[in-house]
Design a protein that fits this description.
The protein has 120 residues and is an all-alpha fold. Helices cover 83% and strands 0% of the residues. It has a single domain (2-94), classed as c-terminal domain of poly(a) binding protein (Orthogonal Bundle), CATH 1.10.1900.10. This is DUF1048 domain-containing protein.
């Protein structure tokens, strides 16, 4: 139970740091970043874990910060179809079910392999 609280506190700190970073972006980048967040949360809430989303948003912030430093315009990064850009980000992330499925299969294969090695 204590680990759950530590994880929640860590996530909250990370989220606050990301909010500060997003606020420091140039105006057009900050606007698009927040719109992307809203869009992605509305479509991913049921299938993607919050940690996966935090990872996506952190990577997106990295990309936006680097691009802004290079003087690129936001739509040069996202393309004109920003929704498709978001969809691609979501498609490239593992859903909660995929992670659980992978873990399930890995646990079974690991146990079966160990038993086979014991037999000979």
């Amino acid at each position: 139970m204590i680990n759950i609280f530590r994880k929640m506190i860590g996530e909250k700190k990370e989220w606050k740091q990301m909010k500060r970073r997003a606020k420091a972006l140039p105006e057009e980048y900050s606007f698009v970043y927040h719109k992307i967040q809203k869009y992605m949360w509305s479509f991913a809430a049921d299938s993607t874990s919050s940690m996966d989303m935090m990872s996506i948003f952190a990577s997106l912030l990295d990309l936006f910060e680097e691009s802004a430093e290079r003087g690129k315009k936001i739509l040069e990064i996202t393309g004109s179809d920003v929704a498709s850009f978001c969809d691609e980000l979501l498609n490239n992330s593992k859903t909660y079910m995929e992670v659980q499925r992978d873990k399930f299969n890995l646990d079974i294969h690991k146990k079966i392999t160990e038993k086979q090695k014991e037999r000979g």
